[in-house]
Amino acid sequence: MQFITQIRQSSAGTDQYGEPIYVTTETVLEAAVAARTGSKTVGAAEVTVTSGLTVYFPYDTDIQNDDVFIYKGERYVLDGEKFDWENPYGNWKPGTVVDLQREVNG
Fold this sequence. Notes:
The chain is an all-beta fold. Helices cover 0% and strands 65% of the residues.
């Protein structure tokens, strides 16, 4: 297993001017991390390449759409939604999976 840091901002109320006050929390989570790449042809001579990570967490890990993750010094954001694996024929719940992409600024 590897470790990945989850960064979450949450509202802690408002200041005297009515502006929101945010609190940032960092949580280190245990996970299995795998590289993810893919590409698709968009136009006649245009290819879009997606790269990032696929991360496997324990079942029902709390993941929110605006969470940021740090893995090996790089910042990543969600690419899609989390998915909880469940066996429809029993109680086996192997985990939660998310796809991440590098955070782009600008």
